[in-house]
Amino acid sequence: MNKLLFAAFLLAGAALQSNSQVMNNPNTNTSLAPVEQLNLTEEWDKVFPKSDKVDHKKVTFVNRYGITLAADMYTPKGAAGKLPAIAVSGPFGAVKEQSSGLYAQQLAERGYLTIAFDPSFTGESGGMPRRVASPDINVDDFSAAVDFLSVQPNVDAARIGILGVCGWGGIAIQAAINDPRIKATVSSTMYDMTRVNANGYFDSENTSEQRQAKRAAMAAQRTEDYRNGRYTRGGGVVDPLPDDAPQFVKDYYAYYKTPRGFHSRSGNSTDGWNITSNLPFVNFKFFEYADELDNAVLIVHGDKAHSYYFGKDTFDKLRGDNKQLLTIKGASHCDLYDQLDIIPFDEISAFYKEYLK
User: Fold this and answer.
1) CA–CA separation, 197 vs 49, rounded Å?
2) pLDDT of residue 281
3) Of 58, 188, 214, 275, which residue is 20 to 30 A from 87 by alpha carbon distance?
4) pLDDT of residue 2
5) What SS3 class is residue 327?
């Protein structure tokens, strides 16, 4: 064996030994988890029609917890150069084929590169067990989307925003507090998932005794789930719909349980979240540092929405002249899921144009 070949042999052996040590050493630090190969649906299975003004493709990226997220990317047709970008998710319990995809496609028509992603443990995204929610991991899902967008060759990393619908509207604002790379945030028809879980609707369960009862019930459910070897689901939107259901429940039914918005991968359309998913939201509080959020926020809410108080109260926590509350007169909570004649897309686009520059 000549000297050059022998040297190459030694280098190859050293590399193999080094790789073996990395693989066998549980204390070895790695900077990024590998992207999981997901089984993604290639056919158009959204609840809204495909636009001929944008290009669409499936993409994946990994979050800080090693979970691979699935997303639909929408790019304006014929776009050139580096574009401002927006990551979209929500509502809470929905999938990207529903409201978030509609928002993403509409904003792409207005000149933004957008992605609508399924949160961890849901839809086409990875993560086990399925149908688990986490205030920490879900906030990181938005930052993971920013990670991904920041390194795309056709994205201007200095001009990235996010948009959350319903429960993801609150998560979006919390993500913006945590991640200053997010230059502009839109929260549409928002919920504060920590407040509603801890205090009940309209703060009607806001006592320590009531919270303790919730904790005790979910702790007991953990024991039962472990004994049975499976997680018990809480059920999606109630079906059949009781005659005496509150109007907002009827509105949810009209979206999630009819052809208007039904999707087989959506927990709200089918069997819901694992019951124990609510536990961390009872014990976690969003917006503790809302007054420290420097970057721009637009909260869009209908004044007929049962959730309107979440938007108004959260807006009051924000500081600075780059924070806006846009009230849509006569709009209900679910009107802002998909009603193109009610959702103020032009105003939302103008907000991003002002603050993503």
Assistant:
1) 34
2) 97
3) 275
4) 54
5) strand
What pLDDT is stored for residue 33 in this prediction? 82
For residues 252 and 112, what is the distance between their CA atoms, to the nearest angstrom? 29
- How many angstroms from the chain centroid is the CA of residue 53? 25
Q: What six digits make up the tokens of 171?
A: 């998560």
Residue 126 dihedral angles phi and psi, to the nearest 5° = -85, -170
Looking at the domain that runs over 54-192+286-355, which CATH code has it been given? 3.40.50.1820
The structure's pTM equals: 0.91
**Tokens 């795309």 belong to residue:** 152
Dig out the tokens for 306 from the structure. Answer: 């049962």
Cα(44)–Cα(47) distance, rounded to whole angstroms? Answer: 9
> One-letter amino acid identity for 150?
S
Q: How many residues does the chain have?
A: 357
Q: What is the CA radius of gyration of the chain?
A: 22
Q: Where are the domains of the chain?
A: 54-192+286-355
State yes or no: cis peptide before 135, omega within 30 of 0.
Answer: no
